[in-house]
Amino acid sequence: MSKREAIRIAGVGNKQWLAVENDGTPVADHQWARMAKALQWTPSSFQQVLDGGDPTEENEAFDDIQSQLNQINRRLKALEAHHNE
Fold first, then answer.
1. Three-state DSSP state, 53
2. In terms of Cα–Cα distance, which of 6, 77, 79, 74 is closest to 36?
3. What is the rounded CA–CA span in Å between residue 52 and residue 7?
4. Which DSSP state fits 59?
5. Contact 56, 48 (CB under 8 A)
């Protein structure tokens, strides 16, 4: 996706996007969220990038949550089986 397309999808101004991109200039929370969604990042990804890390893509976060839910379900089944003995 091009930068122009991401800006269009996010519905923010070119100046705002460039300010964030160039020096991390703060924008309103709803604009961070729009920009993250346009890039298919989680909302906390901008801070991760500003802190020197990598962004987390939405699908990565979903996969992580799904994995955690599966692990919880396995534990619940084991507890239920133990309780029923």
1. coil
2. 6
3. 22
4. H
5. yes
Contacts of residues 2-9 at CB distance under 8 Å and 24 or more positions apart, as own/partner, are 6/35, 6/38, 6/39, 7/38, 9/37, 9/38
The one-letter code for the residue type at 52 is G
Residue written as token pair 């992580």: 64
pTM of the model: 0.57
Give the HSE-up count for residue 16: Cα atoms under 13 Å, Cβ half-sphere: 16
Maximal CA-CA distance, the chain: 65
What domains are there in the chain, each with its CATH number?
A: 3-83 (1.10.260)
Q: What is the pLDDT of residues 38-85, one digit of tens each?
A: 888 888 888 888 889 998 887 765 667 777 888 888 999 888 888 888
